[in-house]
Amino acid sequence: MELLLHTCCGPCATYSTEFLQKQGYAPTMYYYNPNIHPYKEWQRRKESLEKLASAIKLPLILEEAYELSSFLQRTLPREQERCGICYRMRLEKTARQAQVLGIPVFGTTLLISPYQNRELICQIGSELAAAYNLSFCDLDLRPGFRRSQELAREYGLYRQGYCGCIFSERDRYYRPNR
């Protein structure tokens, strides 16, 4: 069954696509990530995903527009809700693209990360699936997280140390004096 897979980066796509294919899905990867900052980081992740798509011979659709302004406009007023806003932005664009392409199922590689809010992602995915008359693939990919890191090394993919957003980068590196 065809599946449009929102893909945040190459490392997360390694195991995710492998596992989904074993479950009978034919994934098309979809790169849309307006949250990633700075632009060089966004570009490195895109290039890493292109490298993986070529290596594993899976189709990849790239959203070339860098929509950081849109992400910031939506999240700055409600910083504490930023992850949900970000999930919704990316999943809604994926659902719309799946509908346009006639792909009945959509999902996301975000479900591989133990650092993401799985329940919230699945809730938003289910809401959007109902709104767009699609199915949301909510398979738990987290058991393959370590394997995805191994595969990323094997493929020589760029591996990042934060989710990509400016807030995550701040939280990882900034430690105010106490």
Describe the structure.
Helices cover 52% and strands 11% of the residues. The chain has 178 residues and is an alpha/beta fold. It has one domain: Rossmann fold (3-Layer(aba) Sandwich), CATH 3.40.50.620. It has a 5-stranded parallel beta sheet, sandwiched between helices. The chain is globular, with a radius of gyration of 15 Å.
What key attributes describe this structure?
178 residues; alpha/beta; Rossmann fold; five-stranded parallel β-sheet; 52% helix; globular
For the sheet with most strands, the description reads: 5 strands, parallel
Q: Give me the CATH superfamily.
A: HUPs
How much of the sequence is in beta strands? 5-15%
Overall strand count: 5
- The radius of gyration computed from the alpha-carbon positions, rounded to a whole number of angstroms, is 15 Å
Low-confidence stretches: none
Structural category is: alpha/beta
Number of domains: 1
Note the gap between the termini.
53 Å
In what order do the strands lie side by side in the largest sheet? 3-2-1-4-5
CATH class: Alpha Beta
Q: Please give the count of helices.
A: 7
Helix and strand run: EHEHEHHEHEHH
Q: Name the shape in a single word.
A: globular
Q: What number is the mean pLDDT?
A: 93
Proportion in helices: 40-55%
